[in-house]
Amino acid sequence: MSLTRFHSTNLTEADLTGANFENVEFLETDLTRAILLEATNLTADMLNSAKLCRTQLPESLEIDPNRDCAELGITDLSD
């Protein structure tokens, strides 16, 4: 099985609803406003270095979906 790496990838506003993230690695990937609802095999560890702001995450992940907004210069968190 091969590993899919997203390294410094811009996935801003990507709709990844229901995607299977088995053997995927996110390295400094921008997931601002991305939709990851109902994603499978997605873990909090996989998102350690990903940029999250207004990101829609599965409820099973206990991660702040806005944790990197200040770093990204985004202050308006309204939809």
Keywords:
79 residues, two-stranded parallel sheet, little secondary structure
What letter string, H or E per element, gives the SSE order? EEH
Question: How many DSSP H or I helices?
Answer: 1
Rg: 12 Å
The biggest sheet, with number of strands, parallel, antiparallel or mixed sense and barrel status, is: 2 strands, parallel
State the secondary-structure class. little secondary structure
Estimate what percentage of residues fall within beta strands: 5-15%
Helix content: under 10%
Shape: globular
Distance between the termini: 39 Å
Average pLDDT rating? 93
**How do the strands line up in the largest sheet?**
1-2
What is the strand tally?
A: 2
Which regions are unreliable across 5 or more consecutive residues at pLDDT < 50? Answer: none
Question: What is the element layout, followed by pairings?
Answer:
Blueprint: E1 4-7, E2 24-27, H1 69-72
Parallel strand pairs: 1-2
Can you offer a commentary on this structure?
With 79 residues, the chain is largely without helices or strands. Helices cover 5% and strands 10% of the residues. It has one helix at residues 69-72; strands at residues 4-7, 24-27. A two-stranded parallel ribbon has the order 1-2. The longest helix is centred in the C-terminal third of the chain and has 4 residues, at 69-72.
